[in-house]
Amino acid sequence: MASNGSSDGLIVSFGEMLIDFVPTVSGVSLAEAPGFLKAPGGAPANVAIAVARIGGKAAFIGKLGDDEFGHMLAGILKENGVSADGIPFDKGARTALAFVTLRADGEREFMFYRNPSADMMLTPDELNLELIRSAKVFHYGSISLIVEPCRSAHLKAMEVAKDAGALLSYDPNLRLPLWPSADEARKQIMSIWDKADVIKVSDVELEFLTGNNNIDDASAMSLWHDNLKLLLVTLGENGCRYYTKNFHGSVDAYNVKAVDTTGAGDSFVGALLCKIVSDHDIIQDEHRLKEVLKFACACGAITTTKKGAIPALPTEKEVLAFLEGEGK
């Protein structure tokens, strides 16, 4: 992929940013962990930084606590070239925290501290509408749908972005411990399903949303809606599958030694959005789409080879060198 695939089109990412506390030792429970390292996280923020890392133009919208962690996170966004013009600070609620268990296979388990956290307190009136209207792509998850007032802010932001002509990108990023119940999670995740132009789900999310253990084309297509332009199912070490109105297929993963899968999906999404932001027609051209998805899979793969999400997100130069080494 030539670097000119990334361009001036603004990608605005909406939702939560938090501090992940990651154990210093892999493969132990939270209780057994001898210590923790603090790492900035939150899927929508990861996506924004992933975009900026590979040369795209990104902004983040979400509320942080008016505390040391909140100001640290805003600083990290700016250091990584992401606009923080859409971030208000809450004097009453703290920045969210998550304790993450890294299992021996690099997969994660979460324990969250947010009752309530600042990201949940974002109101529709606090939205930077000018920033949202300038987005060519507006990306979001589902965690911001869990409680008010953030849910209303999320719905308004989506509406404003859509009315301004943005491509809407949705990665549900299921975190069941944050929802009152699995049924409520499924209901709310699906409540905005038919608004999105691009949707990315993991194999686990596909099973959860369909209630079907088969990770196949029929199961994926049961999630299709008439307004959708691209549906992606990520399969971890097995790559990804893509579905459009006119064609579908798969892209293989790259074989790497995974240390920590945190942020791999966000890296994949950021790369995809960065490459299509200025030319949405790529979605209609299978050859070009496959090239973009190979690049995105490479970004995801590289991200798993280091601990933490944001430190592991690759630059375009790193991805191109990796692809050259793979001979693809």
UniProtKB/TrEMBL annotation:
Secreted among keywords: no
Entry's Gene Ontology cellular component terms: cytosol
Enzyme type, top EC level: transferase
Pfam families to which the protein is assigned, alphabetical: PfkB (PF00294)
Enzyme Commission number(s) from the entry: 2.7.1.4
CDD domains: bac_FRK
Pathway the protein acts in: Glycan biosynthesis; starch biosynthesis
Catalytic activity: D-fructose + ATP = D-fructose 6-phosphate + ADP + H(+)
Domain Carbohydrate kinase PfkB: 10-315
Family per record: Belongs to the carbohydrate kinase PfkB family.
Described function: May play an important role in maintaining the flux of carbon towards starch formation.
Name of the protein in question: fructokinase
Originating organism: Fraxinus pennsylvanica
